[in-house]
Amino acid sequence: MNRQLTPRRLAWAASVLSSALWLAGCGSTGTVPGQLSDASPGRGASGAVPRASNAATAREYRRDAARHIYEANRSRIYGGQMPPMLYAVGTLQVNLDAGGKVLSLHWMRAPKHAPEVIAEIERAVLQASPFPPATRLGAVTWTDTWLWDKSGRFQLDTLTEGQQQGD
């Protein structure tokens, strides 16, 4: 079979190479697919593998992932019941590989009125990676709702202490 280098084949090869280089460049910035901000793990990312999760379902895994976020963000957790009016609420799906590394993010409800909150949530998730490996599940999708106060402190719906009633 004769494969001549025609202009069409050269253009196709160039586009494939260009796409591959673009994708390789995306990974080097510290972002993952689905991010809405340019947040990166920064210096706080430990890289240490936490104790494994024995959760049998993604719903059970939520508690382990939430505790992991709380452990990594102790000073930012809102203690007690949240105020009646929250600054932002966001629901985020985090896709993790079998080792607990963040593969991608998917915002189910992004607090677009507060882009700084989106960036802080994404940064908190990336800095907490790796998450507890889900030994019984392998790769897992962790979904949680972030309840954000104007002070910059938060709770996760999975571990929330509730919310005060408004007048």
What is the percentage of strand-forming residues? 15-25%
Quantity of strands, as a count: 4
Question: H/E element string?
Answer: HHEEHEE
Mean pLDDT rating: 86
Question: What is the structure about, briefly put?
Answer:
This protein is of the alpha+beta class and 167 residues long. The chain has helices at residues 7-28, 58-72, 115-128; strands at 88-96, 102-109, 140-148, 154-156.
General description of the model:
With 167 residues, this protein is an alpha+beta fold. The protein contains three helices and four strands; from the N terminus they run H-H-E-E-H-E-E. A four-stranded antiparallel β-sheet has the order 2-1-3-4. The radius of gyration is 20 Å and the shape is globular.
Can you lay out the helices and strands and say which pair or pack?
Elements: H1 7-28, H2 58-72, E1 88-96, E2 102-109, H3 115-128, E3 140-148, E4 154-156
Antiparallel strand pairs: 1-2, 1-3, 3-4
Features:
167 residues, alpha+beta, four-stranded antiparallel β-sheet, 3 helices, 4 strands
